[in-house]
Specification:
single chain, 34% helix, globular, 11 strands, alpha/beta, two-stranded antiparallel ribbon, 2-C-methyl-D-erythritol 4-phosphate cytidylyltransferase, transferase, Spore Coat Polysaccharide Biosynthesis Protein SpsA, Chain A, 2-C-methyl-D-erythritol 4-phosphate cytidylyltransferase activity, 25% strand
């Protein structure tokens, strides 16, 4: 069984809109629905858990019905930060799926999930117990001396850009979050499942990424998303 946890619990303050960014409409459809449709239409995904902003559960269920998202089995409330939302999803699934099942975690505001990206992250995780979508970094990275200057850089050949989707064997995921909560490791507002797992000592494995897999956080990202949609038509 392969289950996707789609995280859509944020408030989206940087988007400067009155509603959370995952519910903003693009060409008449909420951003979150574009995201979920990628999982709905992929043959390797069996079911979907949506973790949404508290108070938006009923609205999301209406969207699920409207867009016939039959793989969505559950909609639950998220936490105050992303890691709390992911943990809510993990804890919710404890009595619903097997420890050997594969769980894919994805940001609800990354609406373009190429089929090959989702396939590779699932299959890599099933071979190696986990996988994170990743791309080489093609810019130069400099370390700040202060806010005005630098005198050191990181060799870009030694780093990768890691994003969602990410996939994990479920028992590994449960152990990770239980340990993180017990030891207060990797549960900050800048943490994610991948960073938490590394802090706990796990090795992560790279899967294919895509430049189209943008994260919509600012108004300019909406323009890029709309342009990508037009190119795909």
């Amino acid at each position: 069984m392969r289950t996707a946890i789609v995280i859509a619990g944020g408030s989206g303050k940087r988007m400067q809109q009155d509603i959370p960014k995952q519910f903003l409409s693009v060409n008449g459809k909420p951003i979150l629905i574009y995201t979920v449709e990628s999982f709905q239409n992929h043959p390797l995904i069996d079911q979907v858990l949506l973790v949404v902003k508290n108070g938006w559960e009923d609205m999301v269920w209406r969207y699920v019905d409207q867009y016939k998202l039959t793989k969505v089995k559950w909609v639950i409330a998220g936490g105050k930060i992303g890691q709390e939302s992911i943990n809510n999803g993990v804890q919710f699934l404890k009595d619903k799926i097997s420890g050997k099942d594969t769980v894919v975690i994805h940001d609800g505001i990354r609406p373009i999930v190429d089929d090959y990206v989702l396939s590779d992250v699932v299959l890599t995780a099933e071979e190696k117990s986990n996988a994170v979508s990743a791309l080489p970094y093609n810019e130069q990275i400099f370390l700040k001396d202060d806010d005005e200057s630098t005198s050191n850089y990181i060799d870009r050949n030694t780093i990768m850009r890691v994003m969602t989707p990410q996939a994990y064997r479920f028992d590994l995921l449960v152990d990770g979050y239980d340990k993180a909560l017990a030891d207060n490791v990797g549960m900050t507002d800048s943490s994610y499942t991948n960073t938490m797992m590394v802090e706990l000592g796990y090795k992560l494995y790279f899967a294919l990424g895509s430049e189209k897999n943008i994260k919509i956080t600012r108004p300019d990202d909406l323009l890029i998303f709309k342009a990508l949609l037009e190119l795909g038509d």
